[in-house]
Amino acid sequence: MSKIDINNTNGINPLQQAGKSKVDHADKAKTAAPRSKPEVSKDQLQFSNTAADVDKFVAQIKELPEIRADKVETIKNQINSGEFNPSNSEIADGILDELR
Questions:
Q1: How much is the pTM?
Q2: Cβ atoms of residues 71 and 78 within 8 Å
Q3: Domain range list for the chain
């Protein structure tokens, strides 16, 4: 049986060969075509026409005065002239409406 000489590398330094191998892999990675990123879809939100109408009506209601001055003035005039005579039922209904 013959002996194997582990020191004989046929003139190639194994450390240099290993480093070259790593460099070759790095060069291949740099020259490879860049991978494209997967296309990401964006979320979208759509409101129905009904929702837009509701928003419009809410904005209009917010613009209305809390106290209707024209109605208050009419009732004041009716009270002063003696023409305003609500029934007990109308008064009770008005009070209950305010409490609800």
A1: 0.32
A2: no
A3: 67-100
Tokens of 78: 């009716």
For residue 87, the number of C-alpha atoms closer than 13 Å in the C-beta half-sphere is 3
**Residues sharing a CB contact under 8 Å with residue 23, sequence separation 6 or more, in sequence order:** none
- For every one of its 100 residues, what pLDDT tens digit does the chain have, with 9 covering 90 and above? 666 666 666 666 666 655 555 555 555 555 556 667 777 778 887 777 888 889 899 999 888 888 888 999 999 999 999 999 999 999 999 999 999 8
Amino acid at 67: I
- Convert 32-48 to b/e letters by CB count within 10 Å (16 or more is b): eeeeeeeeeeeeeeeee
